[in-house]
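Hi there,

I know you've been waiting on this one. I reran it after we fixed the sequence typo, so this is the corrected version. Both the input and the resulting structure follow.
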Amino acid sequence: MTGAKNFVPKLILASTSPRRLELLQQLGIMPEVIAVDVDESQFAAEAWQDYVVRIALKKARAGVLMSTAGVPVLGADTSVIVDDKVLGKPESCAAAEKMLTLLSARSHQVATAVVLVLPEGDCLQAMSVSQVSFADMPPDFIRSYCASGDAMDKAGAYAVQGQPAAFIERLEGSYSGVMGLPLYETASLLRQAGVAW
């Protein structure tokens, strides 16, 4: 994307998530993608609302430091929350199975924070929180899904557009937010920043 001649981005996406890129492209935006590597550890006693915003801001600011384009930088973070506790990305297949077993036959929240850092340093932010209800997921499904490796790089060990969607009974809120980038909130921030889409 950045290799195209005369490509002048109007936005930097501080994420290599193919889902976030796809959602921005849905708005007609072709961002420059920058891979950022930040520590996503949660502070002790840090509320999930503060955590999600802090990590999104951290990613956006890391993107600013790596960019010379002089355009807004977008960072986002998606977290799965159960009983006010954040489920991050599983570190092993066993951890993924434990997460999906916890999510089975119950509801949880998916929060995505979006932060836009402007060239002059100002920050705009928004958050989308959705409620997702899973039916009972059979243990053999959980095992096979986790063994496929698809659960490993996703908060809560699942993607809403993946196989576990077959067990989602209800989703209240933003489907794109559960995917990783709420389009309504993102488009609103881009309008505020004067980024056309």
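Quick highlight: The longest strand covers residues 123-134.

Best,
R. S.
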